[in-house]
Amino acid sequence: MKYYITTPIFYPNSSPHIGTAYTTVAADAIARYHRLRGDDVYFLTGTDENAQKIVRTAEANHTDPKIYVDGVVKRFKELWLALDISNDDFIRTTEERHQKVVQQIFTKLYEQGDIYKSEYSGWYCTPCETFWMENKLIDGKCPNEDCGRDVELLKEESYFFRLSKYQGALLKHIEEHPDFIQPISRRNEMLRFIEGGLEDLCVTRTTFQWGIKVPFDPKHVVYVWLDALINYISALGYPDGENYKRYWPADVHLMGKDIVRFHAVIWPIILIALELPLPKTIYGHGWYLSKEGGKISKSRGNVQDSFELIQRYGSDAIRYFLLREMQVGSDGTYSEDNVVERLNSDLANDFGNFVSRSLAMVVKYRDGIVPSPGQDGSQEQELKELSHEVKINVEKRLEACDPATALEEIWRFVARCNKYVDETAPWALAKQEEQRERLDTVLYTFVECIRVMAVLTAPFMPGLPPRICELLSLDESIIRWEEADQWGILRHGIKVKKGEQLFPRIDISQYTAAEETKTVDQDQNIDQTQAPKETSDSVPALEFEPIKEEISMDDFAKLDLRIAKILSAEKVEKTDKLMKLEVEVAGVVRTVVSGIAKHYVPEDLVNQYVVLVANLKPTKLRGIMSEGMILAASQGEVLEVLMLNKDLPGGARVK
Ligand code: MSP
Description:
Blueprint lengths: L1 E9 L7 H19 L3 E8 L4 H9 L4 H18 L6 E4 L3 H16 L3 E11 L4 E3 L19 E10 L5 H10 L4 E2 L1 H12 L5 E2 L1 E2 L15 E2 L1 H6 L1 H4 L7 H6 L4 E5 L3 H14 L7 E5 L2 E3 L15 H8 L1 H11 L6 E3 L1 H31 L11 H22 L3 H22 L1 H4 L6 H22 L6 H8 L37 H8 L3 H7 L26 H5 L3 E11 L7 E7 L2 E7 L14 E5 L5 E3 L2 E3 L2 E2 L1 E4 L2 E4 L1 E2 L8 E2 L1
Parallel strand pairs: 1-2, 1-11, 2-3, 7-12, 11-12, 13-14
Antiparallel strand pairs: 4-5, 4-6, 6-8, 9-10, 15-16, 15-18, 15-25, 16-17, 18-21, 18-24, 19-20, 22-23
Helix pairs in contact: 2-3, 5-6, 11-12, 12-13, 12-15, 13-15, 13-17, 14-15, 14-17, 15-17, 17-18
The structure holds 5'-O-[(L-methionyl)-sulphamoyl]adenosine.
């Protein structure tokens, strides 16, 4: 069976965060599950680069849009790698393979009369990249939940797409295909919206040039949403590509609730107009909200560096948290405390503890050799039946794009396994020679339970199977979905190890203490994303920090700024922002920890001359004593260390 699943293509106007990551992790778990079942899976993600807000952000950063997006796209790809995302392709809408398909489709729709030229007069929200009629605005602002930002008045010659012509066909399709828009609450919302009447959609802009040009009228660029939606087929090589023939229509387009409307209206109408099959399901999940309430988003200043989180807790734990915490149809709450709580209770206590406890007993009572089991009792029967029930439920939940309940199901099994240890009390059996066979059965069952747990959790935490297989001295061929509820799969006689805890418990206070040791200036360099900003998600206006209070010459003279030569540079382990530098100043070597690692590779820093605040009180950062601070300028995502040419020696004063 083929299975095609997509995420939205993300705007690379700012780095990805934990909220953005949810959709991709969820799609990955579903894709992995289908692969484990033996399906021929195609999993697509990518970036939506032709938006007006990209131009604005690049301008604000004094850079070219393409250079800007190249940098951010790199961050997306790095994050997906760090989160073990198994996408088969990554489409960028600035790629030629995409652009030519958009131009071809635009021309076809124009030639068949579905696109026509007229004039647009109305409002546009650049952060949401959405056109609005005046009567939809709320207090003159964008009416989108979570936006409410200023809109701009547009009056320009434009091409329009005849959505109105296809309203009836779209409604008919939705009514005849109950699974087309999911979950049901979003389906109802969409039905109400479409029944309210569809207006023709403005599908070109002339006031900027960044984007895909209309081939027969190149002063127009194609509206970003028309362009973006086409990625789902351009990536497959529409119209003649093998992948297109094999994988289209998509089985699931997964996305946040904010963009269901575009997928449930514009996209199917494009496809209907082209006489192409429609995707089977458009699934709109909720949002991750911060503890204080708002959506996790860059504009709210409530995003946390995802790379740092992954380094701290591991990709599997972050994936587990994201997938477990967001209940179907609702929003989820993200906070680092919640992550630690889940990690400690579900992963360390329930899952990890069972694995380490049970393997420790096989080691203790049978020298690590898995014994041949005797006759099953009622408890073993119960475990088997439960594994069967859980497997079926997990399948149903994943088919319904609901990883949270799927995990809840698996944890029913994990809890039963823990109970089994207490009920069977192997430590008591071990004291009675006549219970030898019973102990063999229990120990064998333990290891089978671990195998079942490893198979069931594999789609969600792909880092686990190799670690568990290593403990069982087996290879990953034991991770077979269809065998998750079959017993007696493991051979007796294999040798297991106790190994390390799969999920060591975390004491969150160690991190909060480390945060407090940061100096104010270093904070700004290290974690710009933490600073609450009023700027928009999408279009960070060029906001400079206010000039600080006046100081006297004497105050300034207190600063001892020196030229320092960088002798060596290396990234600090378990952080992605910090770089450890050895610098030479006035003949003395010092260690400086600096928040520049996202912007420089170590090799580019060695032998450079930089400016050091030489009389700054030393402070500990991630356990390293930092003796001073190097100067850097930053605005938005861009950061540059102040470097001098080499005519001045290390130690020279900067005044
Ligand atoms: N570029 C469009 C999508 C075009 S698809 C043809 C876009 N991009 S976006 O960068 O704004 O990403 C939106 C998606 O990111 C949401 O639909 C959702 O999948 C994900 N999320 C962004 N913030 C999120 C949360 N706080 N919580 C959950 N998902 C979030 O819209």
